[in-house]
Automatic annotation (TrEMBL):
It holds the Pfam family GmrSD_N. This is DUF262 domain-containing protein. Residues 46-184 form the GmrSD restriction endonucleases N-terminal domain.
Length: 385
């Protein structure tokens, strides 16, 4: 019988001051784009990873934040924070399994992002930011201890996912998609999350067409639908259409899982692979932008003349376009011709339109999934560009 793995979490009383310092380190670590030195790796060790693209969109209301701060100042016990050790950019860090909102509220108050309002037990502090509090209150706040429970070195990703699932049973539990993104945290995952948020953040800059192509929205980012759609695309443009995958979700989940495992088992190869992914994704998006000069929403049926207000990004179309890019355009050295020659772009687009119009997508007798890998592969293979 195999030895049974036990979690053996480490319980500690951690001051808010230390938590804030480690959250600060986490923010700074995520902003570093250059390769880390050994000194950097040691400097940022122990960082707590909280980012604008964290497990779920921030849902605490001001009233929730204020009540939490009041409880801390009064010494009322706060529910424990659950953390899990991980590697991020080669640094030993801690992901937040449960307690993301509490940590963020504590950090936001310290950074003077909101004032105390509507306090019932400490009404004399109403209207104050942290910087305006008496030094004694500040000191007590930073010295207050929270119970942190840290899980160390899970034996595998599936195990870690189950732990995430079991400990996210609060009033606002994580969705399955959010759990996957928390458990499969990797450099690639962080890059795509940042990419998704920047699509929305920069939507009005230079007429960001990719914002429209990916149908980016805060809601789709919050629910991780946008990111998972991109992971499906990345899986296909890197590895091709997999006939063993029966639905699009498998592409995203296996891709995220593999990048996590590669980063853990072979960091040097993972770094090289990451750079290749970023460059290939840029080229793919350049191709999409060229298509957008003729079709606003190339990941929808609009690419072959059928418009719909409600379906601007359809995963089946995205899979087909990614397959065409991988198996027809890159393999035949057509990309740079498309990027530089309008006539070549128009010719390719006409071929795509004709083939999709006559495909299983518009077959009234076809009742199976439109993300069927075998059907998509047959369609892509049949195209002559």
């Amino acid at each position: 019988m195999n030895k049974i793995y036990r979690i053996n979490p480490k319980n500690e009383d951690t001051s808010i001051k230390v938590l804030i310092e480690n959250i600060d380190k986490g923010y700074k670590l995520q902003e570093i784009e250059d390769e880390l030195t050994e000194d950097d790796i040691l400097k940022y060790s122990g960082a707590i990873i909280i980012a604008p693209d964290y497990q779920r969109e921030y849902r605490f209301k001001l009233d929730d934040e204020v009540k939490l701060i009041e409880s801390v100042i009064l010494g009322i016990p706060i529910p424990p924070i659950f953390l899990a050790t991980d590697k991020f950019k080669g640094v030993r860090v801690k992901n937040v399994v449960d307690g993301q909102h509490r940590l963020r509220a504590l950090y936001r108050f310290y950074k003077n992002i909101f004032k105390l309002e509507g306090l019932s037990l400490l009404d004399e502090l109403n209207g104050y930011e942290f910087k305006e509090l008496d030094i004694t209150v500040k000191d007590d706040y930073l010295d207050a201890k929270l119970l942190t429970i840290t899980f160390n070195d899970f034996p595998g990703i599936e195990f870690e996912m189950e732990i995430f699932s079991r400990y996210n049973k609060g009033t606002k539990p994580l969705s399955p998609q959010e759990i996957r993104h928390a458990a499969y945290n990797s450099k690639v995952n962080a890059y795509i999350n940042n990419y998704a948020y920047n699509l929305v953040k920069n939507k009005n800059i230079d007429k960001n067409k990719l914002y429209e192509a990916y149908n980016a929205s805060k809601d789709r980012i919050q629910k991780k639908k946008l990111q998972e759609g991109i992971f499906v695309i990345l899986s296909i443009i890197e590895n091709g259409i997999n006939l063993n995958y029966d639905k699009s979700l498998v592409y995203a989940e296996e891709y995220m899982k593999n990048k996590k495992e590669l980063e853990k088992n072979n960091p040097e190869l993972a770094d090289l692979n990451f750079k290749e992914i970023v460059e290939e994704f840029k080229l793919f998006n350049a191709f999409i932008i060229r298509l957008q000069e003729k079709v606003d929403y190339p990941f929808s049926k609009e690419i072959y003349g059928i418009s719909s207000r409600n379906y601007k990004f359809q995963i089946s179309i995205a899979m087909i376009i990614a397959g065409i890019y991988k198996q027809k355009i890159k393999c035949n050295d057509l990309l740079y011709k498309i990027l530089e020659d309008d006539n070549e772009r128009d010719r390719i687009l006409d071929v795509i339109k004709l083939n999709l119009k006559e495909s299983f997508l518009e077959d009234p007798d076809y009742n199976a999934s439109t993300t069927n890998s075998k059907k998509i592969n047959e369609l892509v293979d049949s195209m002559i560009l």
